[in-house]
Every structure is written in C-alpha cells, then in structure tokens.
From TrEMBL:
GO molecular function: Hsp70 protein binding; ribosome binding
Annotated PANTHER family: DNAJ HOMOLOG SUBFAMILY C MEMBER 2
Region (Disordered) location: 1-28, 60-85, 272-297, 323-396
Protein name stated in the entry: DnaJ-domain-containing protein
Biased composition (Basic and acidic residues): 323-332, 350-372
Ranges of biased composition (kind: Acidic residues): 76-85
One BP term from GO: 'de novo' cotranslational protein folding
SMART domains: DnaJ
GO cellular component: cytosol
Domain J: 103-187
Length: 396
C-alpha cells in the first residue's frame, strides 16, 4: 500500500484563532408571483371560475369569432374601403428596378391615407391588388385584348408581371416598421408639400402681408404635418387668434426645441450591382453617411427657419406686446398714486410733461434763491471784516 508523505510543520506555525465574523439572523422576504403561468392562473380563476370547461368553451367561442372575421374579410364584406383607387397608365407602367422612386401608397391604392394607413388596411389593399394583378390571372376583359378569335378574352398586357413585382415590393416596405419609417420620412407627397411651403423670401421681396384668417389657414396645416416627426408624443399646435399668452409662449418654446426622428436612409445610394470590391462598399457607405448627416442638418435648419417666419408674422405677438406695455404703464401709475390709496385718474402724457416742467422750474428757482442768499451772506461777512479793520486803525 502506497504511503502518503506530508511535510513537517515549521516550528513558527501557530494555530489560527477563532473567527470574529458573525452569522446574520434570518430575514423575511416577500416573493411576488409573476410570469405567464401565474397570469393564466389568474385568468382561469377570475374570468372562468377556476373551471377548465368554461375556459375551453370561451376559447372555442373566440376562435369561431376570429374565423368569421377572417372569412368576412376574405369575401370582401369588410374591406375598410381601401385598394379601390383608379390605376393610371403611368402607375401600371412602373419599372420594378426603379423601386426607390415608386409611390408605394399609390401602388396599393392608399393615396388618400398614406402614413395614416393601418396595418390591417395595408393587408387588405395588398390582397385586392394581388387578386387583380397576379400573373396567373391573365384572362380578363381589361385592355389590350387580342383581335384573334382564338385569343378572345386573353389580356396581352405583359406589364402585369412587372406591376405585380411593384405590389410585392410595396407590401414588403409598408409592412416593415423600420423600412416604412424610412420611406415616410421622404414620402413623395411630403416632399412636394415642403417645396410649396412659404419662405422668408416670399414676404421680403413683395412685402406681402397676411390677414389673421390667412395666417392660420396657411401655417396650421404645416405644423400639423411636421408634428408627426417629433420624438415627443404630443407637440402643441398653432391655435387661434384668441389663444392665451401662455399657449403662444409654450408653442414657440416647444418648436424651438423640436427634435425630429426623421431619417434619410431611403435616399442612400446603392452599391453597384455585382461589385464585390470592399473599397467601393466602404466608400459608398461613407458617402451615404455624410449625405444623411447633411440632409438632417438642412431639415433641422428648415424647421427652425419656418418657426422664425411664423413668429415674425404671428398677429398674436403684437397683441401680447401691447398688453405687456399697458401692464407696465398701469404698474407705474399705481406706484405714483397717493399713499392713502385714493383713486386718482391716470394722467395723460401731456399732463405728465407739464408736471415735469413745473418741477424743473421749481428746482431752478430754489437753486437761484440759494445762490442769492449765499452771495448776500458773503457780502455781509465782507462788510463786517471791513468795519472791524476800520475800528482797529485809530487805536493803533
């Protein structure tokens, strides 16, 4: 049997002393029931009386209700009124390769809704377009048709395949939250409206003025359009001519601190198709990044310039300044009122000037009297010194 060898302890070794650490006492902690299992338990207990039969019956009822809704939507009973917009020849002739230039809301028949379209409306509009333009559904009465009796009823419009690809791309973009966010940032209709927005040069050159009604009808829709890009949940609107001073100041304070989530990735330049060169990709990415930053900076400056223009034309600012002036004058008049608190009519400007003139004349007269008294006293003192010298002279 092998022996185990141990080292001999050195003579300087001492046994360790008892530990001074103490064991903490017991504590009571409350455990909170959480998680899907607990939620299911609560639902079963509170809604179904802890009966699995009742729970199963409720689940079956909900399943049937959902199935009925899906069937009604499939049969066109509830299409939410979307996807039926007329299709122009220009729209049907879109090139799938130019997919970044397409108006996807127009492709799906949602031009009247655009960014307000819900996911359900996009889904229904897409289904309608697919049923209408699917390549397998070539037999239709749509033009152009063949004049041959053998091909009667056959649609020879070969662009259906291309437009179907446009429909698929529109559905892909508008159902993807991030891609739709990028597309909505540079939406065709949005860009057209921004080009028509008023600018300072429109008013500087022609010295154009707006009535109160024209001011609010011109600027209110623009702020409503821009407010959807705010990172804040709610942005104050322009209001009306009777808005309070607090509302007007809060409105401009919020818009001068406006932060936009708008992005410009949709306008990025694509890498040349078929290129595997890393340098080309890096250069393109770097160029796209700088262009996004430039467009973002220009957009921030555009919003700030527009707020400046609105502030300079706002008829409520003149009213607020007039009210502040009247308040200052009233406060000044209250300070100059008698201490007894008796009510005195507010002096006009002419009366104030007259009072000021009289006060200045009284001060001048007082200064003149003081100067005369000082001169008389000096003369009297001089005469007294002369008389004293005259009396001293005979005595000497």
């Amino acid at each position: 049997m092998a022996s185990i060898q141990t080292n001999i302890l050195p003579k300087s070794y001492t046994l360790p002393g008892p530990s001074k650490a103490s064991i903490s006492g017991p504590s009571t902690r409350r455990l909170l029931p959480v998680g899907p299992a607990f939620v299911s338990h609560l639902r079963l207990t509170l809604q179904h009386g802890h009966s699995f039969d009742v729970h199963d019956a409720h689940a079956e009822k909900e399943r049937q209700k959902l199935e009925e809704q899906q069937n009604s939507a499939a049969n066109g009973d509830d299409d939410l009124g979307v996807g039926d917009e007329p299709e122009s020849a220009e729209l049907l002739a879109l090139d799938p390769k130019e997919w970044k230039k397409h108006d996807y809301y127009a492709v799906l028949g949602l031009s009247h809704l655009r960014y307000k379209a819900t996911p359900e409306q996009i889904k229904i509009a897409h289904r309608k377009k697919v049923l209408k333009h699917h390549p397998d559904k070539k037999v239709t009465s749509a033009e152009p048709q063949s004049t041959s009796s053998l091909l009667t009823g056959i649609n020879l419009n070969t662009n259906d395949d291309a437009f179907f690809k446009c429909i698929a791309k529109a559905h892909e973009v508008l159902t993807h939250p991030e891609k739709r966010r990028q597309y909505d940032s540079v939406d065709h209709e949005l860009m057209e409206h921004q080009e028509d927005d008023p600018s300072p040069t429109d008013f500087a050159k022609s010295k154009k003025t707006l009535s109160d009604k024209e001011f609010f009808s011109t600027f209110t829709p623009i702020f409503e359009r821009e407010a959807r890009f705010s990172k804040k949940q709610v942005m104050p609107m322009l209001g009306d001519i009777d808005a309070s001073k607090e509302h007007v100041e809060g409105f401009y304070d919020s818009w001068y601190n406006f932060e936009s989530w708008r992005s410009f990735e949709w306008l990025d330049k694509e890498v040349n198709e078929g290129s595997d060169n890393r340098d080309d990709k890096r250069y393109t990415e770097k160029k796209n990044k700088s262009e996004r930053a430039r467009r973002k900076k220009e957009d921030i400056a555009r919003v700030r310039q527009f707020v400046d223009l609105t502030l300079s034309l706002d008829p409520r600012i003149k009213r607020i300044k007039q009210q502040e002036k009247e308040a200052r004058e009233a406060k000044k008049a209250a300070k100059s009122a008698p201490a007894s608190g008796a009510a005195t009519p507010q002096m006009t400007k002419a009366q104030e000037e007259e009072e000021k003139r009289k006060k200045e004349e009284a001060e001048k007269a007082a200064k003149a009297d003081a100067k005369k008294a000082k001169a008389a006293a000096a003369n009297a003192a001089k005469k007294a010194r002369r008389a004293a010298r005259a009396e001293e002279a005979p005595a000497a």
